[in-house]
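Duplicate of #3305? Posting structure anyway:
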């Protein structure tokens, strides 16, 4: 039997609705860690279902490092003003801006990488794989390219406040929490050091 205290504890940790927390705990036979995994899995399914919805609102937030030499600004989009004006949504935009300032991504998602940038990376890594066995060259080359760009893609970076989750994971969780499609639409990072 799932207790109200268990549901409240899971809700406090995840911010997800009481009903979803209760269902996850029931499915996990009361195991809190398993319930968190179930909720994470469901957040991906929910986010995928909402990908065709139009983004008409959002929040712009900025982070300036206390040293004053690094800053970032982000546009976190949502479907409605109701969600965009939510205090937790605005805080999420701030957290993502802080992450951008710290991690300096170049792209929002993998699809943003241009063919020229891929070709330039391929050229560099081809030299590194020249002595590898012919049948493994392509696989090694692709692995090096994927690894190189993974660090530069915002959605694939581990979140600085929770390295066990990527930015994509926290956006999927927010989509589940707010019940709307959420997306990083744009960002910029500024640094005195370049």
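Output from current build:
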């Amino acid at each position: 039997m799932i207790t109200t205290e268990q549901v409240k504890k899971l809700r406090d940790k995840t911010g997800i609705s009481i009903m979803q927390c209760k269902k996850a705990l029931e499915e996990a036979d009361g195991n809190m860690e398993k319930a968190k995994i179930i909720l994470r899995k469901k957040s991906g399914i929910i986010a995928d279902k909402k990908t065709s919805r139009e983004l008409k609102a959002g929040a712009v937030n900025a982070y300036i490092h206390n040293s004053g030499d690094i800053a970032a600004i982000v546009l976190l989009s949502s479907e409605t003003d109701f969600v965009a004006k939510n205090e937790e949504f605005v805080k999420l935009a701030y957290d993502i801006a802080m992450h951008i300032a710290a991690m300096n991504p170049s792209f929002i998602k993998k699809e943003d990488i241009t063919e020229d940038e891929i070709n330039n990376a391929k050229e560099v890594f081809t030299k590194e794989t020249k002595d590898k066995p012919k049948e493994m060259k392509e696989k090694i080359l692709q692995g090096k390219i994927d690894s190189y760009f993974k660090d530069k893609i915002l959605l694939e970076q581990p979140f600085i406040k929770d390295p066990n989750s990527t930015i994509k994971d926290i956006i999927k969780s927010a989509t589940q929490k707010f019940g709307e499609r959420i997306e990083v639409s744009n960002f910029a990072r500024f640094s005195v050091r370049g």
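Confirmed duplicate; merging threads. The chain has three domains: 4-49, 57-108+153-191, 114-150. The mean pLDDT is 88.
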